[in-house]
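Try this one yourself first.
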């Protein structure tokens, strides 16, 4: 645990030190669970957005984009069920006065059991060496089976109690498992209550005429209410999807995990409208497609897993999370939900307007079913950033801090250095910057020894460093250094652009999805 905490602290401080993420309004001591993206963070976020948008909208001729407003008519949230049911179960510890999400307390308890399973696996892998068969071990080892059974039973009971709104049983479960407040160790808990996560605000100038509004807690509803407008104007035929990226707001009960759980965050969602009865097939397809998107970034297959939901949200007939191995363990990164016709039917009912599709093949009208993929942009940022931050031992006995962000997403693609600040080298380096900047984000750096400049760019996540030396003036060549391997090559200045392009080109990264 201590190592996990240290690793996570290192991630947070690196994000600040290298201009990725700052606490919001820091000069006023910050605002809890609200963050600002700085010069490098804004670029990384923009690149992740682009990587998602291209994979969804550009590469699928049956998916189009949308940019709906954050404010929506308040009836939207009545219809969607958020006013009545967008709650989290809250519990307070009477001694420490700390507030928790009751389901998260139980899930963290289960995560500890899962850690024990991982430890057993690691031990056995060491013992059996090359002949180790992880699948077989998980299926047959007595201790592992007991752990799995225990974890499964707990999650099932939690799921059932939450589904039945049996909050007394959630408290009973916490007591039976003897879960203690992580801050104080006290087991003195209040009852569990529901807490609505939506932020309210007002629209209109005068108190009498002002209208109560909510800040949207998800982007999906903007897509549902525009379903027919988009379908008609784009002349899309089912199956087709609408994709959107935008801010969402939730008054989260506990927000202690940096940008993993924020009160203002950004979602990348896609609603795929289908014929009723085909939802199982599309649900499986989108699960597979989304996992391929993740794997194309090369963060390591072992760092992802699916988690099928025991407890289904009020709108879903099947749901799974793609979980990622964050510094604090496996947690939800993306959700894939089969939402049936719940949302469109509800909006139809509350608005009195038909939200149906005329299927020319079937010659009939129906309310389409929906499979959605929903990923938090900030969580994706954290997944990439935390996975990329490495401390590497070097052959000369020193270590280097390197941020191995997938080159396609790196904020700056190349840094150009003159070896010394004289003899015409700065001018040539600047010329190279001026040429490359039309294609990539590049920067010029002439401060400190070259070795230090390399380290700075390693920690910044820049995939290439280009050094101009005296030989460059004679034969128009430079050295290009690769961040991940630290390998250096002497190449013609005329070839630099193609070398960078080859590694950062979005097309070749996305092609790995096939
Ligand atoms: P959790 O169980 O972690 O609260 P959720 O199941 O409520 O998440 P969804 O409503 O399915 O999340 O939202 C889709 C995605 O939006 C999540 O997979 C996550 O990546 C992101 N997300 C949700 N809440 C937050 C938040 N408070 N801060 C950052 N990202 C979030």
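Now uncover the answer:
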């Amino acid at each position: 645990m201590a190592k996990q905490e240290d690793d996570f602290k290192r991630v947070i401080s690196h994000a600040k030190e290298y201009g990725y993420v700052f606490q919001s309004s820091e000069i006023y001591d910050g605002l809890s669970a609200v963050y600002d993206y700085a010069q490098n963070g804004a670029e990384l976020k923009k690149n992740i957005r682009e990587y998602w948008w291209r994979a969804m909208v550009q590469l699928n001729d049956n998916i189009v984009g949308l940019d709906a407003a954050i404010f929506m008519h308040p009836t939207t949230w009545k219809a969607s069920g958020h006013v009545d049911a967008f709650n989290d179960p809250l519990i307070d510890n009477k001694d420490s006065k700390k507030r928790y999400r009751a389901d998260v307390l139980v899930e963290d308890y289960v995560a500890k059991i899962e850690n024990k399973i991982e430890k057993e696996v690691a031990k056995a892998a060491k013992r059996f060496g090359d002949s180790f068969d992880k699948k077989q071990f998980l299926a047959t080892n007595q201790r592992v089976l007991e752990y799995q059974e225990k974890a499964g039973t707990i999650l099932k009971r939690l799921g059932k109690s939450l589904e039945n709104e049996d909050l007394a049983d959630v408290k009973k479960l916490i007591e039976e498992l003897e879960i203690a407040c992580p801050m104080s160790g006290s087991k003195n808990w209040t009852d569990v209550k529901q807490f609505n996560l939506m932020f309210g605000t007002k629209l209109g100038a005068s108190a009498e005429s002002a209208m109560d509004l909510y800040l949207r807690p998800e982007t999906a509803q903007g897509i549902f209410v525009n379903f027919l407008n988009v379908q008609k104007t784009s002349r899309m035929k089912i199956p087709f999807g609408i994709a959107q990226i935008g801010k969402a707001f939730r008054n989260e009960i506990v927000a202690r995990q940096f940008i993993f759980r924020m009160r203002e965050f950004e979602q990348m969602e896609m609603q795929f409208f289908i014929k009723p009865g085909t939802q199982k097939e599309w649900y499986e397809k989108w699960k597979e497609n989304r996992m391929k998107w993740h794997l194309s970034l090369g963060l390591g297959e072992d760092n992802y897993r699916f988690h099928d939901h025991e407890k289904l949200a009020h709108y879903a007939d099947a749901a799974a999370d793609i979980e990622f191995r964050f510094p604090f363990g496996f947690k939800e990164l993306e959700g894939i939900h089969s939402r049936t016709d719940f949302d469109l039917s509800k909006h139809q009912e509350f608005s009195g307007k038909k939200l149906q599709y005329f299927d020319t093949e079937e010659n009939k009208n129906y309310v389409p079913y929906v499979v959605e993929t929903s990923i938090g942009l900030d969580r994706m940022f954290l997944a990439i950033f935390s996975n990329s931050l490495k401390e590497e031992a070097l052959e000369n006995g020193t270590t280097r801090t390197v941020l191995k962000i997938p080159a396609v997403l790196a904020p700056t693609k190349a840094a150009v250095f003159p070896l010394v600040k004289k003899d015409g080298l700065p001018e040539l380096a600047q010329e190279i910057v001026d040429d490359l900047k039309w294609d990539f984000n590049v920067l010029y750096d002439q401060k400190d020894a070259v070795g230090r400049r390399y380290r700075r760019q390693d920690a910044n996540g820049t995939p290439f460093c280009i050094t101009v030396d005296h030989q460059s003036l004679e034969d128009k060549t430079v050295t290009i250094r690769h961040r991940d391997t630290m390998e250096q090559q002497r190449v013609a200045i005329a070839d630099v652009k193609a070398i960078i392009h080859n590694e950062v080109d979005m097309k070749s990264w996305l092609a790995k999805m096939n």
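Discussion: The CA atoms of residues 199 and 227 lie 25 Å apart. The first strand starts at residue 21 and ends at 23.
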